[in-house]
Amino acid sequence: MPSKHFFVSYILSFCTLLSACAGLQPLEYREGDISAAARQANAALAQFLPTEFRPGLSSPANNKLRAAYTVQATAYGYRATLPAATASPTPAVCGDTLIISGGFQSHYVYGVDAESGALRWITWLSDLGPSTPVCADGVAVLNTESCTIFALQVDTGDMLWSHWLGDPQTSSPAIHAGRVFTSYPVAMRRKHPLATHAIAAFNLHSGKLIWQKLIDEDVLSSPVATRDGRLLIATFAGTFYSLSQTDGEILAARHARATSPPILVRGDVYFAARVDAPYQWSMRESMYRANAAGTQYSGEATPAPHLDRSVQADSLAGREAAERDQANGFPAEPGDHRRLAYRHLGVGNVSSLQAFHGSRPLYHRGLELTVRVAGDRVTAARPNAGETPAAWSVTLPGDSAKVGGSLAAPPALAGGYLFVNTYRDGVWQLRPEDGSLVKKFNADALPSRSQAIIDRGRIFVSGGANQLLAYDTGDPRLTGWQNLGGNPARTGENEFPYDLVGSR
């Protein structure tokens, strides 16, 4: 018997076809510059945004919970077990401390010795669902699904500041130049399609609000803070925004059907985007380049079942997301406020949106390549190459339709090599020149959707329901990828010189 997800998908597809026949543009197919409209929405409605936020609560975990954390030395490094049966997102390294979020159904954040895995602290948070953390200058910052952003001291886990922002929060923060950038949902007195969420900047150490602007949906994965002072975001509605990090001025806004966070390559912005037409029954995705001249393709269009709601709803990931949402008090079916993300990206549960990174790319400066994971393959393309085939592509093991989403987390870059954490076969070390396999780190490998974190010769991934694996490669040149997106600003770059091929 067809599932209820099938009927929902069928109805949405039928409505899309009717819209196309009638000459209307379905929301997920919108394209075009909306900079002026975004500025106008802010001029009219930004005055209604909150400027004061109530704090959250935190406390050290009790001894019973601390005793339940275990770490075991292994031939490859160590394996730690967290005292919670819930999958953890990508961890982060700050100095010699590894920060691990307890995940969507947890109230806890963990700080452990990165070298040995020994527990340093566990902090209880008053809200459920801590996100992927970001670390800079001795401070770890994370959002929680149920409303609150927390800033913790890395060495002790003590709370520096926190703000209850809104429910739910489905992105993770970024840090650059002493500022924290994050997003949250807003309840406006006057409904406006370009004013459902806000992107805000806070002082890293005090939590003081610096600025905030209205945007059309929550931020996909995380903001990206570039070295030239721009804050780049893609939203779950597929809209690309460029803002000033200093005061939030909207520099550009465009309906672009984006499916990943942006990265900056030689002054131009690149992101993955849907390129299928309304009358097509299969999703397609490509890389896009955006600059002052507009947007254009940068790479061939490839099938994208990982964005197809009819495929994703009945996958393992789709079923697990529905169960997690119900456990946290959300309905299993995507609600109205998540319907656009469901149509555009194929995911609409709060837990799946919090875990969604899309085809998040990185940039290899030495080879001038953008590399991303999309569905069942790792793909490398050259910027400005137009609609030409990829420089190379590697097929990943597994059935993406059954598993759901992509078969690996976004790639990482360290020591001149690519590192791709696959769903079931551990971390693959690849040569960026041609995608050839160098080595697999797959001892004790468990199902995982965590990006590999790489620091001082160690590779860290979370896996299974509550596991953390640390692989000691013995090569200290493998370093510089301490946060999701590489660095606290989430730019998709490794700042260390070893990311240049000639340095190997």
Largest sheet: 5 strands, antiparallel
Structural class, judged by helices and strands?
Answer: mainly beta
Radius of gyration: 21 Å
Assigned CATH class: Mainly Beta
Word description of this protein:
With 504 residues, the chain is mainly beta. Helix content is 13%, strand content 34%. The protein has eight helices and 36 strands. The strands form eight sheets. The protein has a five-stranded antiparallel sheet with strand order 1-20-19-18-17. A five-stranded antiparallel sheet has the order 2-8-7-6-5, with no helix packed on it. A hairpin with a 4-residue loop joins strand 17 (224-225) and strand 18 (230-234).
Summarize the structure.
By secondary structure, this protein is mostly beta strands. Helix content is 13%, strand content 34%.
What key phrases describe this protein's structure?
single chain; 504 residues; mainly beta; Methylamine Dehydrogenase, Chain H; 5-stranded antiparallel β-sheet; 8 helices; 13% helix; 34% strand; globular; disordered N terminus
